[in-house]
Amino acid sequence: MKIKSVNPYTEEVNWIYDSYSFGECRARIEKSRAAFSIWGSLSAEERAEYFSRAGEVLLQNTDICAEIIT
């Protein structure tokens, strides 16, 4: 099944995605649980570094992020 991302203002199609199978969803959930476990073992300082870097990436890509949010 295809999933469309549509700009509600212009009705332009931003992207068309393939949906994931049940097995793919399950694998991604398990992968995220493993990552969360690792995240929980990091110190506050280490987590802050990741958030700082994420903020830098978001600022460098504001146009792309705005389009995705739309």
What can you tell me about this protein's structure?
The chain has 70 residues and is α+β, with helices and mostly antiparallel strands. The protein has one domain (2-69). Helix content is 63%, strand content 16%. It contains three helices and two strands. Strands 1-2 form a two-stranded antiparallel ribbon. Strand 1 (2-6) and strand 2 form a beta hairpin. The model has no long low-confidence stretch (mean pLDDT 92).
* SS-derived structural category: alpha+beta
What is the mean pLDDT? 92
| Radius of gyration, taken over Cα atoms and rounded to an integer in Å | 17 Å
Terminal residue distance: 22 Å
- Domain unit count: 1
Poorly predicted ranges: none
Number of distinct beta strands: 2
Oligomer: single chain
In short:
This protein has helices at residues 22-40, 44-60, 62-69; strands at residues 2-6, 13-18.
Brief descriptors of the model:
3 helices; 70 residues; alpha+beta; single chain; two-stranded antiparallel sheet; 16% strand
